[in-house]
Design a protein that fits this description.
Length: 503
């Protein structure tokens, strides 16, 4: 699995999907650039989401708010006070860690130990093994389980109270060593705010401090009444947005899974108070189905309910995806209550209420949000579509089975050779297709190698123009996944490809 992930990462670079940022200066940690094929794939994902949200739902409209916002926004949202992670350093390796992650890793190790004991006992007892009974009576596993429960409880209390001394005590009590230096020489645990800040205008003082938004949602909340009034929207309605967000993640790793600059695709759905649970369930199901429609395999998605709710939520879950490093959060669905709008009312002194003409009453709507990371979605598609195949003739190929509607190029136009007018004929075909389908033109190299290169960038179809084309106006269409070819009349090509490349 680990090797496969490495191969995906190097493939992404070699074929123009993702480059480390400012690579000639050795890169910038957890920041990445999208190359010529990556940008196309990313745009297609955005379009797939945007169309689903705004075209298929007549009560959802899209906006594009600025990254900079009035600094009070982030006081009202709770980010200035509470958007932080507990962090500590190992004094020997100088490495920085998230305290909660170290503790969770230690818990996972204890869970592993219990699993090993169970496995051993199961072998020893054979058919007569009773797992429940074993767990309840075996002194060693009972002790581990008590320690796990106790640690979980202490972690939860420390996190809820933002008690950094208690976090440190947990690290000490669990005897956690730095995986790099092996030592237990830790600094104190400190709160580390994840927001990036800078100064606006020419005077560098605290009054001019602005933040790079850590989520796109607040741009929607502060515009809630602008959109509702100018669009004459009636509750329930939604506002969708795609845009950059920035978080100074302490532990940035796993390629584009956790970045410091990333993009979110968020939709805030405004509902009548008391109806939020109905809509929460509605959007859970809808979003899951949307992901599964892509065809990467329904078994690769699952729900994960949040037990520890954020300060603004009364229900929350993730849609997790089976990434190369295991099931991890891809999208969050949160019932945010009226927390944000109420808080913005308080801090701004402006009313943010909706007048419900049917009920003849004013109220602050409740919000159900769906928030998916564009880059995580990109990674899910890249990782699952990357396949190393052994072919019947013994050769190997790497193919990206990207769902056709999202593929960077839908079709490659390949004249078998440059001469005899084949290039001209190929150009003529391309001119007819290129407005409707993203085409790739290539006339160099043997046809087999050209097919392989298209496989590697995920082009679902190749059209080959040969001498027969000049005689009877047919071409061959080669299918990326089956590698089968069929002869098709030129006049039928466009319709065939358009329907094959739509959702
Ligand atoms: P995590 O627990 O992984 O840090 P989160 O719960 O903080 O994520 P949200 O605040 O709910 O994430 O953000 C919504 C979505 O934005 C996430 O589901 C994820 O897809 C994406 N996202 C969040 N942080 C990052 C990041 N650092 N890099 C890339 N995508 C991210």
């Amino acid at each position: 699995e680990d090797n496969l992930f490495k191969n995906v990462i190097s493939h992404a670079k070699e074929y123009g999907f993702i480059f480390p940022s400012s690579e000639i200066y050795d890169g910038l940690s957890a920041v990445y650039d999208y190359g010529q094929n990556g940008a196309e794939l990313k745009n297609n994902i955005k379009e797939y989401w945007w169309k689903f949200m705004t075209l298929l739902h007549e009560n959802i409209v899209g906006i594009d708010a600025a990254i900079f916002m009035h600094p009070t926004t982030w006081k009202a949202s709770g980010h200035v006070d509470a958007f932080s992670d507990p962090m500590l350093d190992n004094k020997d390796s100088k490495k920085r860690y998230r305290a909660d992650v170290l503790i969770e890793d230690a818990i996972a190790k204890m869970e592993d130990k219990i699993a090993k004991e169970v496995e051993k006992a199961a072998k020893r007892f054979g058919d007569s093994f009773d797992k429940e009974k074993f767990l309840a009576t075996n002194a060693r596993t009972v002790e581990y389980q008590q320690k796990i429960d106790n640690t979980n409880e202490r972690l939860k209390t420390a996190m809820t109270n933002a008690d950094m001394a208690a976090m440190k005590q947990l690290i000490v009590d669990l005897d956690i060593a730095d995986p790099v230096s092996g030592t237990k020489n830790w600094t104190d645990v400190r709160q580390f705010n994840l927001m990036f800040s800078t100064e606006m205008g020419s005077v560098a003082d605290d009054a001019n401090k602005v933040y790079l938004r850590p989520e796109t949602a607040q741009g929607i909340f502060v515009n809630f009444l602008n959109v509702q009034k100018s669009g004459r929207m009636k509750i329930p309605f939604g506002i969708a947005q795609i845009g950059k967000a920035f978080r100074n993640e302490i532990v940035a790793r796993q390629f584009i899974f956790r970045m410091r600059e990333f993009e979110q695709m968020e939709m805030q759905f405004f509902v009548k108070p008391g109806e939020e649970m109905k809509w929460y369930e509605y959007w859970k199901e809808k979003r899951m189905r949307w992901h599964q429609t892509l065809g990467l395999g329904a078994e690769n998605y699952r729900f994960h309910d949040h037990l520890n709710l954020a300060h603004y939520a009364n229900a929350a879950c993730d849609i997790q995806f089976n990434f190369p490093m295991g099931f991890k959060e891809l999208e969050g669905i949160h019932s945010r209550t009226d927390f944000d709008l109420k808080s913005h009312e308080k801090f701004s002194g402006k009313k943010l209420q909706y007048f419900d003409a049917e009920d003849n009453q004013n109220y602050i709507p409740y919000v159900v949000e769906t928030s998916v990371g564009l880059d995580r979605m990109f990674l899910s598609i890249l990782a699952k579509s990357y396949q190393e195949e052994k072919l019947e003739d013994g050769s190997e190929r790497v193919v990206l089975r990207i769902p056709a509607p999202l593929a960077p190029h839908k079709v490659a136009i390949l004249p078998l050779m440059k001469k005899d007018g084949l290039s001209e004929k190929a150009m003529e075909i391309m001119d007819d297709l290129k407005f409707d389908l993203n085409c790739f033109y290539e006339e160099k190299d043997a046809i087999g190698r050209r097919y392989r290169r298209q496989d590697a960038i995920g082009t679902p179809y190749c059209i080959t123009i040969d001498h027969q084309t000049l005689e009877d106006n047919t071409v061959t269409i080669r299918d990326r996944d089956t590698m089968k070819q069929e002869r098709v009349k030129i006049e039928d090509v466009k319709g065939k490809l358009i329907s094959a490349c739509s959702i």
